[in-house]
Structures
1.
Amino acid sequence: MVRIGRMADGIAITPRPLFDYRRMFLLTDEELIAGPILDCPAGASPFGAQVRARGRTVTSVDPVYVSSREEILDRVRLNLTGAPEWLAAHAHYRRDQATNQVEQQPEHPGG
């Protein structure tokens, strides 16, 4: 569970575009073309809309979708406001771009 600032329910709802998904999950053009894709939890991500705009098939689902549009936007705004604090507190972690693994940097053992 990712905690950012004073988030509701302790789970971040962030807007991540196709570019970020490609980097996080090492998605290739072939995988995007192969579809269909299930984006779950999709949160406030434009990923699904961006893939559909390219003529591909994606279904975006998230438990937060029972909330109103304004409630979701409020949570996203709250999460983004707290993001700098969270990033500073977790700066000793890095994602290896080749393996997509999150590792703790050696100069910060145990914390």
2.
Amino acid sequence: MEFPDRSDVDHLIDPQPLPEFARVRYEPESVSLDDPVGAARAELDALDVDDLDDGATVAVGVGSRGIHRIDDVARAVVDDFPESATVVDDEALAFEDGEARFEDA
């Protein structure tokens, strides 16, 4: 494939000015929990899973950016999911060196 010389196409498009930029500092409020595992369990207990249809699938998503003890929190959610639920594959969530990660099952 051959490309034209820049001088052959520069005149086809008007120069575009760059937008103005400004330095911005964003420091959102950070909430710290004394017991993140307990807080996760409390939120899990508040879920209304009784309204789910029999055989319904529930995914547990985990995002770790800035969450202290994310491995403990994720394990507590998987382990403490309501007893009426059937856990299909909790081995997909593996813990190694204090880090939670997913493995191919």
